[in-house]
Amino acid sequence: MDPKQPKELIEEAIGQYDERCKRKFGDCSNYRTRFLPSAANDVGLVQYKCMCQAGLCSGAHGFQVFNCSKDDRAYNIHCWGRQAFFYKLMFDYGFRLPAHPFIKQFLDFYGVAASQFVPNTWKIVISYLVISIYKGWKPSMSTIRCLFQVQKRGLGWYTLQARQGRKNKLKGPESNRKWKSDFVGIEVSQGTDWSVPVQWRSVRVEDKNEYKSLVLSEEEQEQILYMQNHNHTVEDLCHRTRLYLCLLAPAPDFLEDFRFNKGPKKYSLEPVGPLVFGSVPMIINGRGDDGLDLMIPKSEGNYYVYNLIDGERVLEPNIEPPMFSPEDFSSETAVGKNLVLLATLAQTFGKVKTPPPAIDGSNGDGISFLQLFLLFSGVSASFAEEEMDPAAKKASAAAKAFMEAKFQEKNQSKKRPAPTKPPPTTPAQKKANTRTDVVVVVHPPVQVVSTSKGAPRGSTSCTGDSSKSTPRRDDRPITRKHAAVPTGQKAVDFLADLMERSLKPSVKEDVELVKRLSNEERAAGLLACVNQVCVFAHQLLEPYRPSLLRKDKKLVDLLDESTPTTCAKEARELRENVIHYKRGQDETARDLDTLRMQHSALQKSFDDLDAQHQSILESLKSESSLRQKEKGDFEVYKIQKETEVNDLKVLLDETKLMCDALATEGVNFANSKVAEVLAKIKERHPKLDLSEC
């Protein structure tokens, strides 16, 4: 529908469009909005607050909300294309009008209207836009297409879903399942563009999901890697104040308090804190001095302010640029996740009685990987804090804060009264009631303890009060069939006990051994520690995975995402791959030098050809100018000759007329003279017959 067309044609096109939508989008036709003028006050207040937050009440930005009727549906278009409908939850998740150019590019590629994407989709798109602004990226559809695929949701709606092997890190809060009846009407002012498609369409998702032919740039590959591993939340990224500072949202409208008659007031924007990118806390401000009041005071947290000028990040004046640490990217992603997993496992399993396996150091001494982990986490008091590198201090603080927060959360959950169960009545219920309700069942890879030879190192000893040779069920050692490690102390106390026990046999030797490690060796030890614990925990939990999935699915998912493949065979394959990779690098470097030489020769030939081309162009230009000049001279000569010919034609015509006049006059004169001569002859000779003369 072209708005420049006559209104009669637009109305006819809208009528045909409505009929087509009723046939194709039957699911949407079943939902009418609950935001009606006759709705309850609380429903109207919800709509009013949302529209004020989005700046759609006053119409100052070219868009204004209008009252819906009970016959309106989400796909309808009214008022010659100036009125359309959007879901309220879209604006709650960060969608704004006018939309960012990337959103229009996003919708144009998939060929559907903005309201056809379920609201959860806008969490992904808006969060990606905010991350791109903070990282200084150019938003790319290739990144979205490589990470997500579009899928149908009913008749008319579409959603983005993570591709197989990819993770959606931008899920955000749980979705509202009643959003289909929560749509509002928006009217665009005369002469203002919608900036997004508003006509509902049906597309083939198979045609839109092809992505293997894409050629990604280095920045797009970096975007895909970061979007798969970052730890930012949707709540922080899509905060309405942050959207306003990033120029992704207009200023909110005035909000009138009708309950207390206090008059109109500006809808308040809460101050926001910084986001950490590359270990640098920062806030992007595209609002100049107006945006400074929307940031938390720097006394509450040190951060950098970047002004957004023409889409580029510019550090505030008189501030020394921060040092971005590429190494910290891993701490935001996989390694950071492994540390979180370690803390979670430590708190879940409590005090592990089985000593951990050891890894061999470069000097031939055995080093417990838990010693290295405790060293880097800062739990051990045997090492001075000033001897730790900054990365270790940061990891220590993060690990302690996480474990203490988890412990407090667990204590609070323990204080809640547990629901009482009815007493068992049947024998099956009594048998099932003897099992522990909440228990983590593990199988450590240790040797089963025999009662005759005692407990070997690495297993739990068996003691029994009974005189029988078979111990009680509670005192039996850990076996493959059943084992339980109850939660013991705080996570910090648990780690401290482990450190004390691991360093107790030879404290001085272990301390000196660990102190001699360089920062690179410490980093390698930390990674080995994390990998070993992940593999060890995965082996423990694998036999009981089905029961753990029912008890704590999040912990199992975290374990699966963080478990590396570090068996001996795979390690050898990795080493061989590294050797092949290095050889390939050397060959590539040699080929690159050869290609550079060829490129230089080709560049020289190209320069020569370019010089010849320029000379030919100059000669052609001069010849063309000469031809133009000759053509101009010829045109002038032609005009002159045509003028002369025309003059000669006029002179010829005049001469002809003069000759005709003279001929007529001569004939008349001759006739008169002949008549006179005949008259004289008649007078002299009357009898002469002159009739024939």
**What kind of sheet is the major sheet?**
4 strands, mixed
Figure out the total of helices: 22
Q: Would you report the number of β strands?
A: 13
User: Which strands sit side by side, in order, in the main sheet?
Assistant: 8-9-10-11
Mean pLDDT: 75
Unreliable stretches: 258-262, 327-389, 414-421, 428-496
Q: How many discrete structural domains?
A: 3
Q: Which term fits the overall shape?
A: elongated
Radius of gyration: 45 Å
Helix content: 40-55%
Strand content: 5-15%
Class from helix and strand fractions? alpha+beta
Distance from N terminus to C terminus (CA atoms, Å) equals 97 Å
Biased composition (Polar residues): 450-469
Organism: Corchorus capsularis
Region (Disordered): 407-437, 449-484
InterPro entries: Transposase_28
Structure description:
The chain is α+β, with helices and mostly antiparallel strands and 693 residues long. It folds into three domains: 264 residues, no CATH class; 49 residues, no CATH class; 179 residues, no CATH class. 49% of the residues lie in helices and 9% in strands. The chain contains 22 helices and 13 strands. β12 and β13 form a beta hairpin. The chain is elongated. The termini are far apart. About 21% of the residues have low confidence.
